[in-house]
């Protein structure tokens, strides 16, 4: 992710300055996409977030906020990410790069930090029923939605009394 305007298609990440109302680039706010890791409930998703840089960056960390908010133990209902490297009172260091932040958030998606929960419902589900938690994730919800649409169409086509267009008698 060398250049802020470049997309690294092989990794699936992107980070670019947001456009201001006048069309200029706002270097204090970035639009970011984080791909879900392969072989996880987050796979096949690109999770969008905003990175908002304070005036005194890099002394203070950027605020990272998923848009829309995610159902995750370490994401506040507002979408703000709860991650130690983004907390100046915990692990933030001015030398931390944007790439390190994005990789840290990607890791956090698949490996929540149960010692620092931000969303009680997601935390409780993750702790008590990991299978249900994984099925509540956006990538799996989208897959199930597509499968349900396909199955509903197939079921509808195979109902007794339903005439397929190719089987219909000419009029």
From TrEMBL:
Keywords: ATP-binding, Nucleotide-binding, Nucleus, Transferase, Ubl conjugation pathway
Protein's UniProt keywords contain Nucleotide-binding: yes
CC per GO annotation: chromosome; nucleus
InterPro entries: Ub_conjugating_enzyme, UBC, UBQ-conjugating_AS, UBQ-conjugating_enzyme/RWD
PROSITE patterns: UBC_1, UBC_2
Active site feature: 82 (glycyl thioester intermediate)
Pathway the protein contributes to: Protein modification; protein sumoylation
UniProt keyword Nucleotide-binding present: yes
Domain named UBC core: residues: 1-146
Localization annotation: Nucleus
Highest taxon above the source species: Eukaryota
One GO MF term: SUMO transferase activity
Annotated CDD domains: UBCc_UBE2I
BP GO annotations: protein sumoylation
Similarity section: Belongs to the ubiquitin-conjugating enzyme family.
PANTHER family from the UniProt entry: UBIQUITIN-CONJUGATING ENZYME E2
Protein name per the record: SUMO-conjugating enzyme UBC9
Species of origin: Phellinidium pouzarii
């Amino acid at each position: 992710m060398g250049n802020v305007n470049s997309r690294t298609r092989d990794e699936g990440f992107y980070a670019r300055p947001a456009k201001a109302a006048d069309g200029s680039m706002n270097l204090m706010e970035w639009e970011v996409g984080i791909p879900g890791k392969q072989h996880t409930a987050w796979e096949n998703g690109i999770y969008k977030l905003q990175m908002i840089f304070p005036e005194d960056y890099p002394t203070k960390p950027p605020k990272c906020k998923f848009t829309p908010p995610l159902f995750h133990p370490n994401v506040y209902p507002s979408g703000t990410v709860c991650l130690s490297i983004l907390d100046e009172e915990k692990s933030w260091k001015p030398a931390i790069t944007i790439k390190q932040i994005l990789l840290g958030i990607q890791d956090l998606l698949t490996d929540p930090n149960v010692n620092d929960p931000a969303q009680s419902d997601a935390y409780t589900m993750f702790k008590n029923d990991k299978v249900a938690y994984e099925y509540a994730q956006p990538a799996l919800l989208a897959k199930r939605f597509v499968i349900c649409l396909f199955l509903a169409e197939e079921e509808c086509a195979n109902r007794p009394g339903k005439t397929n267009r190719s089987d219909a008698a000419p009029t």
